[in-house]
Records
---
Amino acid sequence: MDQGGANGPDTDDRKDRRGRAAQEADETRGPARNRAPDATPGRTAREPHPALPAGPALPPVPAHPAGLTHPAGPADAEASSPPGGSRLGADRVPPDEAASQAPQAPQARPVPRLPAPAAPAAPARARRRPRVPDAREPAASGPAGASRLPGRAWESAALARAAADPFPEPPLAWLAGCTTAGSPTTGSTTAGSPTAAASATAGSTTAVPTTTGSTTADPATTGSTTTGSTTSDPTTPAPPTAAPPTAPRPWYATADDVRRPIRGFTSDSAVAPGESVAFRVSVEPPRPFTVEVYRVGHYAGHGAARMAVSPPLDGLTQPPPLVAGRAVACHHWWLSWRLDVPPHWPPGAYVAVLATADGERAHVPFTVRDGTPADLLLVLPDLTWQAHNVYPEDGRTGAGLRHAWDERGRLLGEADAAVTVSADRPYAGTGLPPDVGPVYDVVRWAERYGYDLGYAHATDLHAGRVDPTRYRGLVFPGPDRYWSAPLRRAVEAARDAGTSLVFLGAGALARQVVTAPSPAGPDRLLTCRRQRSGGRAAPWRDTAPEQQLLGIQHAGRVPRPAPLVVRNTDHWLWEGTGAAEGDELPGLVAGDADRYHPRTALPPHTERILLAHSPYRDADGVRRHQETSLYRAPSGALVFAAGTAGWAPALDRPGHADPRVQRATANLLDHICKRA
């Protein structure tokens, strides 16, 4: 195999691509052994998350639904594989391919905090594990044009409503005040409204405030607004109370960067139980607001559970953002409220909803991580979220590492984008990160089926706050384009120690970044160096191609969704899906695509196989192709790369869920977790 330095095309710059003939890569099919690595000695099963309370708009459900049952059948796809290897020959290739080897913030007085309630004693429970049905079980219908597939109904209720294409930032009904998730006819109660305040104090198990008052400080002297920490109290549950319906409101009507009715961010976006989350909020004009805290999960299809509600807080209009070149920062904003995270809160993805009494809303995401070992660690791509954040999206000053506005209201490309961005600012638009939809799709699906999950940010691995070798697998659930060198070294070391890697998006490791401290703390500034010619961000492939970790690498953008063409269907990953050789999964190749580049070195491996080979045409009409890759490292770790941004939405996105992708993903995770 030629392992020279020529790399595949990077189609981000259309001028570089124009007139270039399609380069169809040669693919290598290696032997596909399906023996999973031995279970790591000393790993202990973590107790399932305790039941979480739900709010007036969300019925109470457990974190991992206790009523979940599975039809009779093999407990693992691995059970039907021959011992010691798969049924796939060493040199199997798709029939249409040829085989080859180839300014300081003002100092405010400390803000007082209310202590969190004591954690209740958690009863010992046995760990539940998911099971995937086989062909002997009742069939469930798949997408249009697909045969009836073994399994049960996988789709959850419509958390992401009205998604017009596979990868928008989805409208989140439970956050944005549209209709109650799972109930299209009942409107949700606006946080901060009288009905919300009444329901929060009327015995609801969703959020039982530990205080009804608040401590108000004079912003002119302390720089802070109303303070006080409110958390749920699961020790005295009471029947939930139904909130009176309110008129539905458009999901996009309450957050923008032009009017700036309410915006906010956190100084630490990932914390451990027992630590605190500091919110910096600007309200224009100044008026009271409240904070509702939700945890993202399946929750019987509702998509989230409300964990806490703040007392009414005094809003303050913060100073304008600081601008230096293209960089925008808000680290000089006053502290508005501090939430003490109770020790009993489970790890997960959380969203704080900032809401005024007149219905204006914004969102602030944060993550609760946990040092307890788990089977799988979900690594949320906060580096990429910050790189793509163009706050303020006002048509003038906002900029990220990929796009920027100019003074004439034009959205510029990467060559004119920022070189450095700050994490000390809100996210543009609704306040949710760019491309967060696929991440929440994976979270809801994985929690629905009981996988033992830990949560962390990419910066946690970068800074060494989380040891990735303690997990059987690392799951990268969405677009993850920007990586630092310490992050990559940590992930490669985990792979070499036997931890499997699962990439459920495309375009990972496309750009290299470095971090630096800001006045607010370490690693709050993100810089992407530029190539000398063209001003484009320097890709990883200039020095260490991403294929050397993923097994494939970025091929380009996919302007129109195309079907994913399944290959090597006798591999255990496709077992029980009902997919046959050459079957097409409609619309699954979209957004971005990866493929194998034969002139770029492969990672060390003992087995390797490509599980999809899908043609599509780029924006210039040039024929290209996408591929899905799986290889086994010498350590025994599996490394899976979906190679398309459409894989994660196919797990739980209404209108895009595909039972074949769901089953294949379950086969993969069960194989990694050794659930047989």
---
Amino acid sequence: MKLSTIFYLTQFGSSQYDISNMIDMRRTTVEGAINRVATTGTALAGKSMGRPSSFDDYTKRHLERIIRSDPFQTIETLQGQLRSMSNDVSRTTTDKQWEQVVWSDESRFRVFGHDGKPKVLRKQGERYESCHLLRTVKYGGGSLMVWSCFWADGYGPLVFVDGNMNQNSYVDCLSQKFLPWYYKLTHLEDGEYIFQEDNAPFHTGGYANWWKNSHSLNVLKDWPAQSPDLNPIEHIWSELARQLRSHRPDIKNTEDLRQTLNEIWEELVPEFAKTLVSSMSKRCQGVIDAKGDATKY
């Protein structure tokens, strides 16, 4: 409570005027609080008095060190140091909160990675050499829809979806693949995690929402629509696509594609996930600075 804060500052000889300015409380209220302490002999209030104190135990200890190091510094200096400290704590807290988010999304990968006519680098006279040609496959080609998730310390299951994603296939994906992994994660890590999804219709439809509510899935609320710059999993899809390019000569069909994607997924290192999540504060600030337009992320 603010009463304990007033009592604490009084012990260091702060005047009623200084205390009033520091904690943004009227001087008459501060005076009454000091008189109450003098009368009751305790800083504990039997009844709530104003808003809860913004000074936690750590802040109080820090404030004590500041005052002891220089008892003659001005109240403005103290206020500035406390504001700076508050901002630092806020950023740290936000970063920790991002680490409790499980990021999810889906993406599509093709057997053949080129649309239209790709460019090829070759010497004059090598136009028709086999190493400079992309062969076509009759009744071949195709693509795979995949869904997955990750958090600050690792990756969830890579789920292959038949056809296009809809509410039924999305709920099947969550119930059969995601939920067992999620329960294991919360048990092993002994923590609560928030599930992130974008606002695609099959994510937020009635059936999907009913399933998530019935399984008490803690979903990150109010995620902005059409915001790939904010979702760090987009970088994982880009990494998969990049590594797929080096395997293209060996990928002849969707089964080859499935096997290769699984192999790449299993080789992703935890440090990559950590780096992506640690970028969230900068991502958010970048989107704010761009007023919702595209960013470098």
---
Amino acid sequence: MSKVLRSISCNTRIPVKLQKNIVRNLSYVCVKYEKQILKNFHENDSFYCRKLPIYTLSKRFYSDDLPSHYKVMLPALSPTMDMGTIVSWAKKEGDKLNEGDLLAEIETDKATMGFETPEEGYLAKILVPAGTREVPIGKLVCIIVEEEKDLAAFKNFVDDSPPTKAAPPPAAPSAQPSPTPSQPKPPPAPIATPSSAPSFAKSSERLFASPLAKRLAAEQGLDLKSVGVGSGLFGSIKAKDLNKASRGVAEASKAVKGDGFEDRPISTVQSEIARAVLQSKQTIPHYYLTVDLSMDEILKLKQKMNKSLEKEGVELTVSDFIIKATALASLKVPEANSAWMDTFIRQYNAVDVRVPISSKKGLISPIVFDADKKGLAQINKEVNNLIAKAEEGSLQSFELDGGTITVSYLGMFNIKSLSTIIVPPQACTLGIGSIQKRLVPDASNGTKVSEIAQFTLSCDHRVVDGAVGAQWLIAFKKLIEEPHNMLL
């Protein structure tokens, strides 16, 4: 192993001491360094890493029958990605490729991301057409050659390799598995194990399944025994086997399409959001604290600051102030800037604010990192940049993974209040309604018209009890109603 990890894309030399934080996976090594998730691949006793989303599984091959070529496999564009959807190809067969060119758009469990060309050369063969869903990580998606004259050699190339490297099972069955006989396709509805199942499925009473498959089965109410033989080693059940089983049940009970409705397919992102919010509501003990806060001073300060920032092309919004106030309040009450980790509570030193954005590609929640250390103008620029990248589908994985607290603002829709679902493993999320004029008591004139907004803090009672949640709102109230405190 080399003593230094090197990032080809950004020339970052990673100190060897950070190698103790490396998390190894079947086909890659992952390390988080300076807020950037890096993937490292071992080749000839050296480690090379690239910043997302450039990294991929690409290997150079030599053959007596075929010229030198690179096999490009589907990469893991997020730590939680198990499969992806090829949304579109930006290049067509025969096109010249330069390293860093957009090669394809891939929909992950987080968002639709651009997949950049890993090698220079020519695109010889596309093996997974656009629109293909549930493509497993490590699946061969295309072939790249170095010379244009070699394109013709891959015209009829067919991928006969397994889609992924199979993980070893928790324990091998005592009986030696017999060869898998040819078997017909199982019926759409997973009602029973096919009679032509391999013999090793019968020789052991223990059911082998990946941890992800077990969790998804529990959430979907599926009986693993009804799935039958999985696609993993020794017939172990993987997550994609559950997806096929669930789809089979849905197809078996699918109603005939009529004139009064239209069935729309569920995207990978929608499916992941549905799973996450269901898990959150079922497993996290939510409670809610609501306050009405005056926005008068923030609106006045925003107007003054925008005049001074006009030459710089910066126009602050109320959201910028709220993000900053959220970060500073979380520093004052760090118990709210924490996460439930099952066996312990993790308290963060920095505040990374997750900001849900409604884009053409659906709901996406990028992150403003270290919001407590940034000024209002910098927060504004980052949020606008994240919104633009969300619309383009160019957000990188590290911009979507993590966050220590979430802020969700629906003021632009004239919504009075918003109670949000907690994003696990975070302890709190903040929901904000629209700013509305109200008649409030005034010491001088008896009453006055004030700009009021309602803020609702959703808390995980396992981490933040009622007193701590109230303390956080008190600190937040002081920052909102006296915004000069943000400058102290």
---
Amino acid sequence: MKKIFSILFVFALGFVTCNAQRQLQGQKGLELGAGIVSGEKALHDFFYTRLGITLNRAKGNYNFGAFEYMRKQHTFEGISIPVQSYMAEVGHSLYLLGDWRRTISLNMGLSAVGGYEVINNSENVLPSGAIIKNEDSFIYGGGLNVSLETYLGDKLVVLLRGHTKYLLGTSLERFRPGGGIGVRYIF
């Protein structure tokens, strides 16, 4: 009889799927993302790319740090003026909503941002002879982001991300909203 129960038990295990626990405290993740920032031009004129790392905390919350490259293309009398921002961001994201298996979650985060902004490749004079009064500068400020995250597997997360940054030290726009998509690998 014990032999029959053992065989049935092993047979039944074949029909049960196992999932690893997700969002455990201490897990780390490597994140890659890209998206668009506010603007009325084409995608290649207003975009950002991002490389970050996350560290899970209790209850689905996590700390994050990221490096971000943002490019915006402005025009003046038909002349393109590129604005490039190189930023580092550190912050904390709070778990807001999700299902009990943690396959999908909605998070909101606050961050501190700092970096450097380059206007027209540091050239102040345009080909038409016009002078750009804006100068390259160090920028700093804060950010707010909302992300919808879903697990494709136990170690792979896809996220939709909306964010806005408020930057000081810049002579251009201070609010910089954007949205994008990213992938996070949990290790």
